[in-house]
């Protein structure tokens, strides 16, 4: 069997040892020629896979080690009889941690407490529902908008326009779709952006085109009161330097880039491939993944609880580091091509990041109110357990 795979899928050699020949390529370079004698194609989000790309090739299985599937022509691949698998929820926890770190930073920037905000979550699936649970455990008010889910169960759901009118913070967690009654392409258009409440915070870690970036740039020029964090860009891997300058936080599509999230994605696709090949999945992620966590943290009583909470969140992930790296890259890039390559390099060489729940907390010695809130929010595990 010949497997062609994106070079940025970790642990693939280990999971697929004995499966056959494995060819690793930069994701953006994978094309028809790369897969002309491949049986299996494994990608991440930067490889667009259409039925036309696979015509005349033996490829019968396409796996993406990502949550998003907008880079795959799902109807075309299904019609061509190609099995497709994705990795639902694999890096959802990382995205939640990214959003929390954004909230802390936007709070500092505006000198207004994030704990007092009403957060509107657009798209309440794997990421949105975990974000809602985490925020609620931290005592933060959330409002939810998910029309496709509301068709099954409207309880607690409101429309996007109502969400925009009632929320201080809007965080987007929808898939990118262009067709159908709930299409998300330019879901946040000029009209909706203009309707954001005075001083609102807007966070997008879904897909770039969910927000009309040209409209956002125009609105931000007139509304410096709005604070925006963008992890994803309509022209990705090219970042509009003017739009980035108008955002408080600008990062290179790394919201879900914890090592744990990437490894889960690989493991999920390994399992899907084993099912497709009708062979037992003999390897588990726990056997191959690094065991070291983020360490144990003892939070001494004394400082205010909210300060300790912020410190705990920052210890595991600080979005300001990713923001600084992207801005430095954009400033140094001498051409659009250099900027595109710089964006991809920041993602390929991403520093090691582990998920918060690997941080253990000593409840015996820590400030009890903060320890309880962090445990309830799934941020840490109890070192005493
Ligand atoms: N920046 C990053 O690193 C990452 C980005 N993502 C993006 O986040 C997206 C969401 O991820 P998940 O929550 O795991 O997906 P999911 O599929 O579990 O949930 C998406 C939710 O959005 C809802 N939705 C669809 N259309 C909508 C609309 N018009 N308005 C409101 N809600 C709508 C769906 O009903 C569903 O409940 C992914 O599709 C992916 O594009 C995911 C992981 C990492
Ligand atoms: O899982 C998703 O969906 C994502 O957006 C991934 O974090 C994207 O990562 P790459 O596939 O672009 O490495």
Automatic annotation (TrEMBL):
Species, as recorded: Halopseudomonas bauzanensis
Binding site for substrate: 45, 66, 257
This protein's record includes keyword Phosphoprotein: no
The gene coding this protein: pdxB
Organism ancestry: Bacteria, Pseudomonadati, Pseudomonadota, Gammaproteobacteria, Pseudomonadales
GO molecular function: 4-phosphoerythronate dehydrogenase activity; NAD binding; protein dimerization activity
Record's catalysed reaction(s): 4-phospho-D-erythronate + NAD(+) = (R)-3-hydroxy-2-oxo-4-phosphooxybutanoate + NADH + H(+)
Domain Erythronate-4-phosphate dehydrogenase dimerisation residues, every copy: 306-366
D-isomer specific 2-hydroxyacid dehydrogenase NAD-binding domain residues: 111-255
Key word Heme present: no
EC number in record: 1.1.1.290
Active site: 207, 236, 253
Similarity section: Belongs to the D-isomer specific 2-hydroxyacid dehydrogenase family. PdxB subfamily.
Main localization category: cytoplasm
Binding site for NAD(+): 146, 231, 256
Domain D-isomer specific 2-hydroxyacid dehydrogenase catalytic per the UniProt entry, residue ranges: 33-278
Pathway: Cofactor biosynthesis; pyridoxine 5'-phosphate biosynthesis; pyridoxine 5'-phosphate from D-erythrose 4-phosphate: step 2/5
Cellular localisation: Cytoplasm
GO cellular component, one term: cytosol
Protein name: Erythronate-4-phosphate dehydrogenase
Classification via PROSITE patterns: D_2_HYDROXYACID_DH_3 (PS00671)
Functional description taken from the UniProt entry: Catalyzes the oxidation of erythronate-4-phosphate to 3-hydroxy-2-oxo-4-phosphonooxybutanoate.
Subunit structure: Homodimer.
GO annotation (BP), single: 'de novo' pyridoxal 5'-phosphate biosynthetic process
Entry keyword set: Cytoplasm, NAD, Oxidoreductase, Pyridoxine biosynthesis
Ranges in coiled-coil conformation: none
């Amino acid at each position: 069997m010949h497997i062609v795979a994106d070079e940025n899928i970790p642990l693939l050699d280990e999971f697929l040892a004995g499966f056959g020949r494995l060819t690793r390529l930069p994701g953006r370079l994978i094309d028809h020629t790369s897969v002309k004698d491949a049986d299996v194609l494994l990608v991440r989000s930067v490889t667009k896979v259409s039925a036309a790309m696979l015509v005349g090739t033996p490829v019968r299985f396409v796996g993406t080690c990502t949550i998003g599937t907008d880079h795959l022509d799902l109807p075309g691949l299904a019609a061509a009889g190609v099995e497709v698998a994705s990795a639902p929820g694999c890096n959802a926890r990382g995205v939640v941690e990214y959003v929390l770190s954004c909230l802390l930073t936007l709070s500092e920037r505006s000198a207004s407490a994030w704990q007092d905000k009403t957060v509107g979550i657009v798209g309440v699936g794997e990421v949105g529902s975990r974000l809602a649970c985490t925020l609620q455990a931290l005592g933060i008010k959330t409002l939810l908008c998910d029309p496709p889910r509301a068709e099954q169960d409207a309880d607690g759901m409101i429309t996007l326009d109502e969400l925009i009118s009632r929320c201080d913070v809007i965080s987007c967690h929808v898939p990118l779709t262009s067709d159908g009654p709930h299409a998300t392409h330019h879901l946040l258009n000029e009209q909706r952006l203009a309707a954001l409440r005075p001083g609102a915070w807007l966070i997008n870690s879904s897909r770039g085109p969910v927000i009309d970036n040209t409209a956002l740039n125009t609105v931000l020029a007139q509304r410096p009161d709005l604070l925006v964090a963008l992890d994803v860009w309509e022209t990705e891997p090219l970042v509009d330097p003017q739009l980035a300058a108008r955002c408080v936080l600008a990062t290179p599509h790394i919201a879900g880039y914890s090592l744990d999230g990437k490894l889960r994605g690989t493991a999920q696709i390994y399992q899907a491939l084993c099912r497709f090949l009708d062979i037992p999945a003999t390897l588990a992620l726990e056997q191959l993944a690094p065991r070291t966590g983020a360490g144990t943290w003892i939070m001494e009583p004394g400082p205010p609880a909210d300060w300790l909470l912020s410190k705990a969140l920052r210890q595991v992930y600080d979005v300001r580091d990713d923001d600084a790296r992207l801005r430095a890259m954009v400033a140094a890039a001498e051409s659009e091509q250099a900027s595109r390559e710089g964006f991809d390099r920041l993602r390929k060489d991403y520093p090691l990041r582990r998920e918060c729940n690997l941080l253990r907390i000593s409840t015996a010695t820590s400030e009890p109110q903060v320890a309880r809130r962090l445990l309830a929010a799934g941020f840490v595990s109890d070192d005493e357990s």
